[in-house]
Design a protein that fits this description.
417 residues; alpha/beta; seven-stranded mixed β-sheet; six-stranded mixed β-sheet; 7 helices; elongated; binds adenosine monophosphate; binds magnesium ion
């Protein structure tokens, strides 16, 4: 087991060998946010034929060389093509067909004049404008050609992608299975939110924030509840999560007398890959795996609520995204101007919870207050994690720093009013 490693090294060890989970087939209607497991190749050409982009008249452009408001030109009204219908016959010279948006062009027609530039007069139509060749025509295949790859593997399915799948006739889609995560909270002091907190008890809030972080990363979380600080109870609790893809416990990974998570994991057959990452918050982070994939990947997160969330953000989230088939594993990062001077002891990389405020073209990062790893409000207020480099001891007000953006809304300009 490695100890006291750097953040980048820990991230490498976590992601090493992690591959997307196998595919499953789900209804396209239920696939929002899912990740395509295979490329989607179209069996169709869309639109299937040249068709009208307007309500108006289909005709041959060279039959209407010079129509204008001042000098309208007339063509014979031949027939009507409703949306989804077919022309009864090809369009002849000197003829126009009434046509509606999405209807296929009659053979012989090459252009559309929109109805605003025409007026029906019994068996004729007067035109007040001459179309350019091909005007208001959607050409066959301008959206998708049969045989073409339309969506690549690893694509996250959003509203537009679901619409594309439907238009290709795909009512089901192959996506990566979502990672299943089992979450265990450990500690004699812990209770559920609706229980009594008298006598120094605290709510096992980590189960809530971590399950929500899992859901945001596309995973399915199960709460295994609370284990007491005994080896037996921890063995029972951790043992209950061995069927998951990922087992995440919080607390009990420090060096206290009641911190049994690491020995119990080893007893269960887990090989600890590392303990201790040079970061703050979150130093006691533990990661392990079972040989030959005969068990879940395992994180022992620190118990302090901020440490648990920050280590999740930095290590668990990218792993879940990778398992879920995502290609991009990191948050967007920005350079922000420091709104105040920050100080620390050199040595560990710090992740400072900050708000981000727009100031013209700049973003200003300001600490969310008390940065103790027990102060969960510092996380609740945070829009980003400012990266305070390991070797640095001061970042001066006005200097630029890198911030991982947790809440992308802050990048948008505020609404006026
Ligand atoms: P430990 O790692 O067990 O020393 O816990 C460190 C701190 O985190 C202690 O103050 C615990 O009370 C707190 N803590 C542990 N587990 C949780 C949890 N599930 N939810 C909220 N706080 C916790
Ligand atoms: Mg504890």
């Amino acid at each position: 087991m490695r100890t006291g490693i750097e953040v980048e090294e820990a991230r490498r060890l976590v992601l090493e060998g992690a591959a997307p989970l196998p595919a499953e087939v789900v209804a396209t209607a239920d696939a929002l946010g899912r990740i395509l497991a295979a490329p989607v190749t179209s069996g169709r050409t869309l639109p299937p034929a040249d068709c009208s982009a307007m309500d108006g008249y289909a005709l041959r452009a060279d039959d209407l060389a010079s129509a204008s408001r001042a000098a309208p030109q007339r063509l014979r009204l031949a027939f009507e093509v409703p949306a989804g219908g077919r022309a009864p016959r090809p369009l002849g010279r000197g003829e126009a067909a009434r046509i509606f948006t999405g209807a296929a062009l009659p053979p012989g027609a090459d252009s559309i004049v929109m109805q605003e530039d025409a007026e029906a007069e019994g068996s004729e139509v007067a035109f007040f404008a001459a179309p350019a060749l091909g005007e208001h025509v959607r050409t066959a295949g301008e959206d998708v050609r049969a045989g073409e790859e339309v969506l690549s593997a690893g694509t996250r399915l959003g509203p537009a992608q679901l619409g594309v799948l439907a238009s290709l006739g795909r009512s089901v889609v192959r996506v990566h299975r979502r990672p299943r995560v089992a979450i265990l909270s450990g500690g004699d002091e812990l209770v559920e939110p609706d229980e009594d907190v008298a006598g120094g008890r605290i709510v096992a809030s980590n189960a809530y924030s971590l399950a929500a972080q899992c859901a945001e990363a596309g995973a399915l979380a199960t709460n295994l509840g609370i284990a007491r600080d005994t080896r037996e109870d921890l063995e029972r609790g951790l043992g209950a999560g061995l069927g998951a893809d990922l087992l995440v416990s919080s607390a009990g990974v420090s060096v206290g007398d009641h911190d049994h998570v690491r020995p119990v994991l080893e007893k269960l057959g887990c090989r600890l890959v590392f303990w201790g990452v040079q970061m703050k918050p979150g130093f006691p982070l533990t990661f392990g795996r079972f040989e030959d994939g005969r068990g879940p990947l395992v994180f022992g997160l620190p118990g302090n609520p901020v440490s648990a969330m920050v280590t999740f953000e930095l290590f668990v989230r990218p792993l879940l995204l990778r398992l879920g088939g995502r290609r991009v594993l990191t948050r967007p990062s920005v350079r922000a101007v420091l709104g105040e001077t920050l100080r620390k002891k050199p040595g560990r990389l710090h992740f400072v919870r900050v708000t981000l405020a727009r100031d013209g073209e700049r973003l200003v990062a300001t600490s969310t207050g008390n940065q103790s790893s027990g102060v969960l409000r510092s996380m609740a207020l945070a829009q980003g994690l400012l990266v305070f480099p390991a070797g640095a001891s001061e970042l001066a007000a006005g200097a630029l720093a890198e911030v991982m953006v947790l809440d992308a809304d802050v990048l948008a300009a505020p609404e006026p009013g």
